[in-house]
Amino acid sequence: MKRLMTQTAKLGAAAALAAMLASSPALAGGDKAGKSPWGPQDEIGTLNMMTDASRQEILQRIETGKVYDLGVDLFVGMPDCCSAAFGDPTYQMWMIHAPARGDGSGELLSHSSEAISMNTHTGTHIDTLSHFGLHGKLFNGVSANEALGVRGWSKSGAEKYPPIVARGVLIDVAKAKGVDILPASYAITVDDLKEALARQATTLSEGDVVLVRTGQMSAWPDKSKLTLFTQSGLSLEAAEWLAEEQKSMVLGADNLGLESFPSTNRENFAPVHSYLLAEKGVSFIELLWLEELARNEVYEFAFITSPLKLRGASGSPIRPVAIPVKRGS
């Protein structure tokens, strides 16, 4: 694995992932893209669980004007998932128009604007269903041969995603275990989630946005402590429990890739990614800022965000917010 990581640092993200997955004889668990229960035209998976009634229900329970910003700043030199791991481009911003220097007397009117360059999986972002597939197919049988072009995907791209308004739940695993940060590469178990929920006196409901805190963002923005291949995160079993038994609509975490890395299952580089996105149609959010929610013990809230309408993109930066609500019965 160490040798492979060194080699992949020189490759692009797509080539790196292909090399890692190709090195395995078979994927653990399922190895076929799932079929959507919402019909052959579905491109958003479990986001179909959201309705006008569900949105109204959670908004009506808001009891304060306090808003928690769950997004991180985007800046040059920021930590990211994949520049070190896969050689992906880093976030860059540069001025393309700027006021004249000096006392300003030579200009009646000045203006400034910038250009940016970034991976769509930079900062706080959502992974869409086009991000991972199995045997050349995305969730709901979308074929790369038919739906992938040089400008992205014609199916299941970020522009297809609706604004997300739903009940959000924070599961503070780090606090439940009495640590600031979970150990490197720790794989969160189903029992860990249950114990944290019990400690918080919080229950999950169908259609929730479930956010898991590992504590890693307490080290933000120290790049030496925020690296993909040493991160704690969800185990495959924990993801299965949340997606299948709890019927969560969207998952999220305060780490770089939701799941723990390196995978404890050596047959699959990213088993949680392929399971959630390709098999179950569950989108998820990475690099969430959950420190303030955790500090104030806000475990239930209205979760609101929206991806940018990046046509054909497999991910999109977002700026989610959480607004505390009256606790459910």
From TrEMBL:
GO MF annotation, one: arylformamidase activity
Cleaved signal peptide residues: 1-28
Lineage top rank: taxon: Bacteria
InterPro entries attached to this UniProt entry: KFase/CYL, KFase_sf
Record organism: Stappia albiluteola
GO terms classed as biological process: L-tryptophan catabolic process to kynurenine
Xref: SUPFAM superfamilies: Putative cyclase
Keyword set, alphabetical order: Signal
Name of protein: Cyclase family protein
